[in-house]
Amino acid sequence: MLSVVPPPVTAGAPAKVNLHLAVGDLRADGFHELRTVYQALSLSDRVRVQAAPALTVTVRGEGAAQVPTDRNNLVWKAATRLAHKAGMTPSVEIAIEKAVPVAGGLAGGSADAAATLVALDAFWRLDSSRADLVAIAAELGSDVPFALHGGTAYGTGRGENLLPVLARDTFHWVLALARDGLSTPRVFDELDRLRAHAAPPRCGDAEELLQALAAGDPARLAPLLGNDLQAAAVSLQPELRRTLRAGVDAGALAGVVSGSGPTCAFLCADHDSAIEVSAELSGAGVCRGVRLATSPAPGARVVADAG
Ligand code: C5P
């Protein structure tokens, strides 16, 4: 019988910044209870899937050398779990094109996993329900459901339970990339250690921040940005203090460590200000590089294949 090989499918998925990240108690399962406001950034990775004799993963682009290409890659797990659920054999090549820094607190690995779910769902013509994809996403990692969702969302639990949040207009960011990454579990452990000895600052509730988002007002949003993990990330990489100061000195409205870091995200008044801040920051010698981004951005979705 003649079998038709389906054409390759490419999907993109966004990086995220946590505008508000309140870390609660350590749970019995090793995760911390979170209350967070996620916003998706225009910085995104792409994943292309195509037929292959067996499951293989290739990576190119930003930080590619640090990304595993075996079963330790989240996209491998995404493919095997979706295949298992659908009764398929995951005979595909998954080619990841990275723009999101690795181990940067921007959920790049989660974006790749979400893009893989969406790409394979289309490639295998599964037409899975949103709820089915979200359930697999939540098994893969705390941030993967948000990478599917995109936009702006309030996350609870491990961060995987999402409610959409109203956000007006576009926000402009400069991302300062650090020279070395930070491991997420290590940053959470460091926060537990700091809390055992002292009282690092804690975010309050997100009420005012949600209002600033609904109003689309960056000047109102800026002083409300907060991240409980920032103290831990700065404790592990003290040079981040200088980076955070340099961004504000360069004219940003505010700076915050993104998620578990070490990327610092600077909120700017508008596009022109973001260009100026990025130029000054890249000349200040406080980071490996800078990226401009806007938010919110859409969640994981199939995109036209550039070949
Ligand atoms: O869910 P994910 O695999 O991204 O989490 C990586 C690690 O980050 C977890 O193993 C845990 O150490 C830490 N974490 C946490 N609480 C969360 C999310 C992540 O302690 N809510």
UniProtKB/TrEMBL annotation:
Transmembrane segments: none annotated. It is an enzyme of class 2 (transferase). One of its GO terms (molecular function) is 4-(cytidine 5'-diphospho)-2-C-methyl-D-erythritol kinase activity. Keywords: ATP-binding, Isoprene biosynthesis, Kinase, Nucleotide-binding, Transferase. Pathway: Isoprenoid biosynthesis; isopentenyl diphosphate biosynthesis via DXP pathway; isopentenyl diphosphate from 1-deoxy-D-xylulose 5-phosphate: step 3/6. It catalyses: 4-CDP-2-C-methyl-D-erythritol + ATP = 4-CDP-2-C-methyl-D-erythritol 2-phosphate + ADP + H(+). SUPFAM superfamilies: GHMP Kinase, C-terminal domain (SSF55060), Ribosomal protein S5 domain 2-like (SSF54211). Residues 210-284 form the GHMP kinase C-terminal domain. Its EC number is 2.7.1.148. Belongs to the GHMP kinase family. IspE subfamily. Catalyzes the phosphorylation of the position 2 hydroxy group of 4-diphosphocytidyl-2C-methyl-D-erythritol. HAMAP family: IspE. This is 4-diphosphocytidyl-2-C-methyl-D-erythritol kinase. It comes from Skermania pinensis. The lineage of its organism: Bacteria, Bacillati, Actinomycetota, Actinomycetes, Mycobacteriales. The gene is ispE.
